[in-house]
């Protein structure tokens, strides 16, 4: 089986790489710094160890890690049949990565855009293979979530859709078909909810624990919106809201100043040890 | 201050969920709001605080249900001979 390139070793890239490896795929995980890749492998080792405790399958960390190689720079993904891109939700960063991937990879390589908001057709337009670019919105934590949004762009070919469906099935994921629209279904609703929840804290209407308590106890949600923000990453939430704001030019998506301040202050949620809540960190 | 394993664990759990009444016997996962992500934090806290590495076969939710079950796990692992 040919190797799958995973671009970006942040929260989502790490989850995608682990999910692929634990379902028997060979993976090359790519980022721009050696240190990030080292940390990513340590995170995968920790997460596979915790898998059973988290309600997942019992996993052998060494076996999962043996299927993952790493590379600094996108040239490492040149031989991949499929590339799953998970870089930050910032258009300039994404564009640069896709221009580089398009130059490095074989013309038949499928590019899977893992984004929570950026239109797939816009990504496809910066490549010379718009028929081979498709969106998959993975949920976090990737190995534990059973479904994804599958988003063909305007030019995506039926063959690309089928190849992506086959890969998702092999990863144990159910694909929910959604049309290409900024934010798709999930984040048009979720990001506005999280943003409004942040405004409630910002305005002093309720503290974070009380906001989340309403969602858990009154609505029966497993997590409240601000716990969810800490899980996704407060910085990622901000970028996603900014993408929606810019795309629709609609003031209903204006980002809460508290999200901006927390992002600047490094309060990025679970991954940084502190966000709306404080967490015990590894080590 | 707490100086027993049970007390230190209880303090950590109460610090995270100040709105709940939690004693050493309480099954914290029986509360609707404690999810498996907190189980992962508990593992990290216990390993760091007590200087132990929990073997994979002990990473079961039953070992982390209450301060008592966690303290029992810590006691078992601290008394075991170290195997290289």
UniProtKB/TrEMBL annotation, chain A:
NAD(+) binds at residues 8-13, 31, 89, 94, 116, 140, 271. Gene3D superfamilies: N-(1-d-carboxylethyl)-l-norvaline Dehydrogenase, domain 2, NAD(P)-binding Rossmann-like Domain. Residues 4-180 form the 3-hydroxyacyl-CoA dehydrogenase NAD binding domain. Keywords: NAD, Oxidoreductase. Signal peptide: none annotated. This is 3-hydroxybutyryl-CoA dehydrogenase. Residues 183-279 form the 3-hydroxyacyl-CoA dehydrogenase C-terminal domain. The record marks 137 as: Important for catalytic activity. It comes from Microbispora oryzae. GO terms for molecular function: NAD+ binding; oxidoreductase activity, acting on the CH-OH group of donors, NAD or NADP as acceptor. SUPFAM superfamilies: 6-phosphogluconate dehydrogenase C-terminal domain-like (SSF48179), NAD(P)-binding Rossmann-fold domains (SSF51735). Pathway: Lipid metabolism; butanoate metabolism. Pfam families: 3HCDH (PF00725), 3HCDH_N (PF02737). Belongs to the 3-hydroxyacyl-CoA dehydrogenase family. GO terms for biological process: fatty acid metabolic process. It comes from the Bacteria.
From TrEMBL, chain B:
PROSITE patterns: CARRIER. SUPFAM superfamilies: ACP-like. Gene3D superfamilies: ACP-like. Residues 1-78 form the Carrier domain. InterPro entries: ACP-like_sf, PP-bd_ACP. This is Acyl carrier protein.
């Amino acid at each position: 089986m040919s190797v799958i390139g995973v671009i970006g070793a942040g929260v989502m890239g790490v989850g995608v790489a682990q999910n692929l490896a634990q379902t028997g795929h060979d993976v090359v995980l790519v980022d721009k710094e050696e240190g990030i890749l080292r940390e990513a492998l340590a995170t995968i080792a920790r997460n596979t160890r915790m898998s059973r405790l988290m309600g997942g399958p019992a996993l052998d960390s060494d076996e999962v890690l043996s299927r993952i190689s790493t590379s600094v720079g996108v040239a490492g993904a040149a031989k991949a049949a499929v590339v799953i891109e998970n870089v930050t939700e910032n258009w300039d960063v994404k564009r640069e990565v896709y221009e580089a991937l398009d130059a490095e990879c074989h013309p038949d390589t499928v590019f899977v855009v893992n984004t929570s908001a950026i239109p797939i057709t816009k990504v496809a337009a910066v490549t010379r293979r718009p028929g081979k670019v498709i969106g998959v919105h993975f949920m976090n934590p990737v190995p534990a979530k059973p479904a994804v949004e599958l988003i063909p762009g305007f030019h995506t070919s039926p063959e690309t859709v089928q190849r992506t469906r086959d890969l998702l099935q092999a990863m144990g994921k159910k694909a929910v078909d959604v049309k290409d629209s900024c934010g798709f279904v999930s984040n048009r609703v979720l990001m506005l909810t999280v943003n409004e929840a942040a405004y409630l804290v910002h305005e002093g209407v309720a503290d974070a624990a009380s906001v989340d308590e309403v969602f858990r106890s009154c609505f029966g949600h497993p997590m409240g919106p601000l716990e969810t923000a800490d899980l996704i990453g407060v910085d990622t939430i901000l970028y996603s809201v900014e993408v929606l704001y810019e795309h629709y030019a609609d003031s209903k998506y204006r980002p809460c100043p508290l999200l901006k301040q927390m992002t600047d202050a490094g309060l990025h949620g679970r991954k940084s040890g502190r966000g709306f809540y404080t967490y015990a960190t590894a080590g | 201050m707490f100086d027993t394993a049970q007390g230190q664990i209880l303090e950590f759990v109460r610090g995270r969920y100040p709105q709940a009444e939690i004693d050493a016997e309480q099954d914290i996962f029986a509360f609707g709001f404690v999810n498996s992500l907190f189980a992962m934090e508990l593992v990290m806290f216990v390993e760091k605080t007590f200087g132990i590495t929990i073997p994979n076969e002990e990473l079961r939710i039953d070992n982390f249900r209450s301060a008592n079950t966690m303290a029992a796990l810590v006691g078992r692992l601290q008394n075991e001979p170290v195997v290289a």
